Amino acid sequence: MWEAISEEKPLVIIGCGKMGGAMARGWLKAGLPESHLLVVDPVAARTGVEGISCSCVFPSMEELPANIYPSVIILAIKPQIMDAVLPAVAANMQGGPLIISVAAGTRIGYFSKSLGRDAPIVRVMPNTPASIGCGITTLVANDYVSESQRKLSEQLMKAVGKTVWLSSEDQMNAVTALSGSGPAYVFHMVEAMAAAGSAMGLDDELAMTLARETIAGAGALLSHDTRSAKILREEVTSPKGTTAAGLEVLMGADTNLSQLMRQTVRAAKKRGEELGS
Ligand SMILES: NC(=O)C1=CN([C@@H]2O[C@H](COP(=O)(O)OP(=O)(O)OC[C@H]3O[C@@H](n4cnc5c(N)ncnc54)[C@H](O)[C@@H]3O)[C@@H](O)[C@H]2O)C=CC1
Ligand SMILES: O=C(O)[C@@H]1CCC=N1
Fold first, then answer.
1. How far apart are CA 123 and CA 111, in angstroms?
2. Ligand 1: which of 25, 38, 40, 41 to mutate, judged by most atoms within 8 Å of the beta carbon?
3. What are phi and psi of 52, to 5 degrees?
4. Coiled-coil ranges per the record (predicted)?
5. I want to staple 13 with a disulfide (CB 3.0 to 4.6 A). Which of 74, 87, 174, 184 is the partner?
6. Which ligand 1 atom sits nearest the alpha carbon of residue 16?
7. Residue 50: its pLDDT value, please?
């Protein structure tokens, strides 16, 4: 899988924070030789990045070693600083690198304007469980991405979890709002469940342990058991029992989680649209 990438034609990650770092560690773990990876990140160049040797971290593209022609450039910086970074990327397009962007909201057409109309660009949306190989990434490519580049981008994202190709870039903001941001909703659910346990008289530490392990266990069950979430829910719910009483609130006609989740995902999608405008 790594044959397209070499020391002379490395994989360059621009921005090695939470998402870039998670992917980089995933790729190293999946067998990418460290000599084939270059990281550009001014902060990481000062502080170092967990799991990545400092010899491959550079503060800017201008300081990358001479005579390298990146085969893949991963853009894992915030959408807000893309304008400032793209000119340096445009200056490194000689080897015809595949561009992969993880940035929320930022459309393929925006990159084409700076990097060239025929630049091969894949827009992806991973999520942070990628750091343990359990992410899910959606991908969408423009027409200039070759079959082998398409395969390479899929293999790269498969190294950190599952992958799904989208039929249209127009789906990307909804996807971002659901699976990109989604881990945060689940972590907040842990916080909310723990706070509810504390309010019922449990000590805070016990409540947090119970909430955390419950969500982790339920997540593991979901990934091991192919039955629907509905059936798994029904298995917990004894007729006229405690879960049924709890779910009457969570699934009630007036206040319910589905409604709140719809509002949550709608707000996140709208923000994606704003970031892309
Ligand atoms: N955190 C998440 O769960 C996800 C984030 N994303 C996307 O990933 C991108 C990065 O987000 P995070 O990793 O969360 O942010 P982050 O703030 O953790 O990482 C951004 C990195 O960019 C670096 N940086 C700043 N200026 C730079 C420059 N001029 N050149 C190179 N690097 C520079 C920063 O030092 C930082 O390490 C965003 O576009 C976001 O939309 C996508 C999916 C999930
Ligand atoms: O919050 C954000 O904008 C990024 C995109 C998806 C997850 N984090």
1. 10
2. 41
3. -125, 130
4. none
5. 74
6. 37
7. 87
